[in-house]
Batch of 4 targets.
Target 1
Amino acid sequence: MPPITPQAVQELLDDLQRNREARKRAWLVLQNIRARLEHWQGDELPKAGLRSFDAEGATLLVIIDKLFAEREAALKNLADAIRRFQATIFESEKESDRAGAHQAVLNALDVAEALIIAPGHGSKRQDRSL
């Protein structure tokens, strides 16, 4: 084994410093993602038990999955409600369901709107009841 030179030690110390700086930057990126998710969620997210990339990433993935699932459900409900209302217009046998279908569209719009409005700003919806 060759002798360890002061230059080799310095190179290792420089690598270690670059690695620390890279980890700090990566942690800051995760915390920026956390802050955005908290804004979209409208609430503080649970903290990971351990301060580790794996734990923080797992926590953020759970929240991302939840947010996407909520939005997907809202879009599906809105599309279903619009199709139900559309059927009352084009299918005479479903005309009696028009008021209920219209209310379902308004309710689905409220849910979808709540997912896109910044927290604390309330709904844009005026009273659109029948």
Target 2
Amino acid sequence: MAGFGCGGGAGIACTLAPPWYPLGMRVLFVCLGNICRSPLAEGIFRRHVERAGLHEHIHIDSAGTGNWHVGEPPDRRAQACAQGYGVDITGLRARQFSAEDFDRFDYILVMDNQNHANVLRLARNDAHRNKVSMMLSHGSRGPVDVPDPYFGGDDGFHAVFAMLEEACAGLLETVRREAGR
């Protein structure tokens, strides 16, 4: 799977997920800069997918609505937090969300209301808009924002990790149900 997107391969250039991807399940996580929340979500969801034995059937990537960090690895605090829970996100590189992502992905999970608004501004039709949902709506918290830990301390990253862990488990159940798996 590495090499079909920007997030999965260390330094691999961004390319389209193949249109024939098994089950057609392509999942994209989006935050502001693609260095904190969305790479954490990508890493956590990848672990859930691998443990479920579905890693050959689900393509996973992440992006940011802004372009400030394109090409950079995740924030060192996000990397350390993830590593502490056995999730490796060190090989991920930030990229910016684009309108073409609506055609590349089946699920687009945004971290907060501002990301939601920014992504929807690029949607060209209802089919595109229907792919977008709030990340935490897949957990018990409902469609609320995942707080951005960038300007805080390490505790904020751990709190975000816990929120994303629960939501990723719920998202996997949604994907499995819709795929009939």
Target 3
Amino acid sequence: MATVGERSGDQGTVTTTVPARLDRLPWSRWHWTVVIGLGTVWILDGLEVTVVGNIAGRLPEKGSGLDITGAEVTGLAAALYVAGACAGALFFAWTGASSARAVTGRRHRRPVIGWVRPRRRRTWRW
């Protein structure tokens, strides 16, 4: 899979066949779902940043109805952005896990990443 150059005094060049092997894999419906989902989220995130960037400059002006400075807008917006991202991640992780349990009827799942007990000596069940 990967080899390192032969000379001992050299750092060596790593030669690998992984990219060629990945290019030979078939493109499936799952790949299209991931690409379309990530593209949609990317567009919505860009729209959100654009809207917040345009509104944030107008909020500290006189007559906006808010008694707030530019620094408060920036700090408050950053804090609310991070808090909303964290709350959304926790909420959707919880709803996704609970709906998966409702569909499968299982309460306990195997970990996706982590060690599991070996079946026999030197063989691991992933």
Target 4
Amino acid sequence: MNKAIIHNRFILFVGLALMLFQSCTNQPEKKSISGNEESNVNQSEISKTDFLEVPDLAKPWVYYWWLKGNVSKELITRDLEEMKDKGIGGFLLFDSRGYHDGYEDGIVPVPLKIKYEFMSPGWREMVKHAMTEANRLGLKMSINLANTGGSLRGPWDMKDMGPKQLIWTEAQIKGPRKVSVKLTNSPDQKYFKDVALIAVEVAKNTGEGEEISLENLNRNWKEVTTPKSNGPNAGKVIALNDKITNGELHWDVPVGSWKILRLGYHVI
């Protein structure tokens, strides 16, 4: 990664940390939920009125999912009025599509034969209406500006700026020996980039396991998940990035059994 980018990110991190510390050390005077200043507020001092008439700042938020752009102004108004009536304070709007998109498959019920495409003029008009109605009703509103719910992306080709997934593969060898292997990018991994290459010594008391070919470092990619509870214990860990020259790993393997872990990411 470019050193200037790393430096800028470090400065930003330090700045955010200082802001967080400042906010924690300079607390405002305590107030009751209704806004009246008090020196020491506790649960026993919350009034019956405060409890029965919850102020907007203390009301819960909800997710508001638009499935496949299947909305209308009438439905939006009805939904938001119901939220207000049920004591909701705000909502986070999600546009969700890309899952069972056909109207005729019967998997997802479709109340209207409408399908506003993400960021189309009609879709933006619906968002504007939601904002107007939220303001009228005194509801707070935020929006996840993406078209697949949890994945932050649009319907267009975002190239290497799309959402990414961390993946890994491994080899296992025994030392001492010298190894060399060319590290290639899999054509199946879109916009693949290496993240790290590390060697982990397998502790003797956990079983050394079978050797896995160095060629496996270029295939059999897996998603990063929670490790097994009965997995082998790690001993020494060695970073191998500085052992790579022109895309080829050259390493003098120490005595012992070693797992070589290659981590990278690709666009999903």
